[in-house]
Amino acid sequence: MALIIGLLWGKGAEWTEGLVLPALAVIMTLSLLGISGSAFRSFRSFITHAMAGIAMNYLILGGLLLGLNRLLIHDEALRAGFVLLAAVPPGVAVIPFTLFLRGDRTLSLVGTIGTYLGALIIMPLIAFTFLDLSFLNPLKLFLIMFELILAPLILSRVLTRIGMDSRLEGVKGPITNWSFFLLSYTIVGLNREVILNQPFSLLPVAFIAVASTFLLGWGIEGIGRLFRVPHGRLTSLLLFGTIKNYGLAGGLALALFSKKTSVPATVSAVFMIVYIIWLEFKRGQTQ
After folding, report:
1. 73-101: per-residue pLDDT in tens?
2. CATH number 1.20.1530.20 is the correct assignment for the domain at 2-286
3. d(Cα 125, Cα 108) in Å, to the nearest integer?
4. What average pLDDT does the chain have?
């Protein structure tokens, strides 16, 4: 719905652009409330699950995005968008999708937290390696990382500790949905001219989005079955290997570069939704 409204009435998106980062901070904080403190009790388990999430989301998915970006994308703004997409951690949607698809809940919970903590180091490394530093303000990047990753992690732990997580349960869904609506509307609205007037220029972007979800997911499933990885664990690894935090990537693009830089995140988010629907359909067919 937000995508359609953004395309039809996207001129007002300039007024909502300044709300993107606060909306993302709210989404991150509320999404992380569902992770209990027990995820941190076993250091060995935490490291193991964190490394699994980092390997799938950064080495496999991030590596594919960077490789295809170098081969297929020639527009500098779009290239920067894919670098940001490779640099961000997995979407927090990995956790609810794990429940829907009957994955390994512990692996997804602990792996998500571990990957977000790892992102505090990995994100700047990828950004400074693959982006033009003359257009990137390092201080601004670190401030945004604090606002959108570290601060929500800390705040979510504080709210859970004082028992606010249960009180927010009833409003968490609507607030998150409206925040996502605002984010999607803004990014699509700011890029409506490119989407409507130059759709063929987005074909390489769409191909990378398909390759990083459907094709990569097919490969991960095939290798997992070959090595007889248990279904639950394979499902969680599959989600880590095909889902990025598209909202975070889009917000960083708007804050650090140009509106066109947010296009890869927007297009990829659409294909991710279709891919999750496909996974749910497949699960239903095998039952």
Report:
1. 999 999 999 999 999 999 888 888 888 88
2. yes
3. 24
4. 83
